Amino acid sequence: MSNKIKIAAVQMEPKLMKIRENLESILNAVRKATDNQANLIVFPECSLTGYIFSSRQEALPFAETIPGLSTEKLISLCQELKVYVILGLLEKEGDRLFNAAAFVGPQGLIAGYRKNHLPFLGVDRFVDIGDRPFQVHQTPIGNIGLHICYDIAFPESSRVMTLLGADILVLPTNFPQGRGEKYSHVVSARAFENRVHVVSTNRVGSERGYSFAGLSEIVDASGEILSFASPDKEEIIYGEVSLDSARQKHQTFIPGEWELDCIKDRRPELYNVITKPNLDRI
After folding, report:
1. Catalytic site residue 257?
2. In the chain, N or C: fewer CB atoms in 10 Å?
3. How many domains does the chain have?
4. Taking a C-beta distance cutoff of 8 angstroms, is the pair 117, 72 a contact?
């Protein structure tokens, strides 16, 4: 496993209900990012389908299985180029509908993730809530954890994946204008407090009166922003990260005088209230 990993965040403007057009843009972006030596390429939330659907019935025809037609085409390209890709899409399983991300690479489908925290916005008003725990996936480019957009507002999500050994947390997003700027600070905070790298890939453009904030970013394990996108342009940003830096949780500033460890210094016995059921949701 190489210690240095080059990440690409593809900030794009998906077209609502235009899967063929979006997939073509996605495949072209994968080729371009690979030409720039990217190892891991991340696309926005619902980048295959668009996001502002008006009903479950409207969204269902545009959902795919994982693996499915679009992910199989992406897998073929990953096998050709020896690259790893995370794609946002709508997933169907029987009569269920999920806001999902597919993680694919040269070996095929690595994982599918279903959004666990749903805001009352866009297609999230109609999808089923995620039914799988947060997981970390071991790959030749590091240990990768997946979450989607609103998930990052719940710091437990990032901490769980950190405790499971994540080196890189991937966050496909659709932050609207007026919120993306604030979430930029949250992304850096999650990286800093967990000593992990975080890539947040947002979209640009508008759908049905909603405009999206762009501002995709790649943040290293110290919380430093390595690369930051514009608020309104389609572009690919890049950042190189060290897996070793994400695995070194103990920080020594002055030996024997000033040392910190964000994992060993935790006090889990004080946090029991966090795991109590949310009675409002039951």
Report:
1. no
2. C
3. 1
4. no
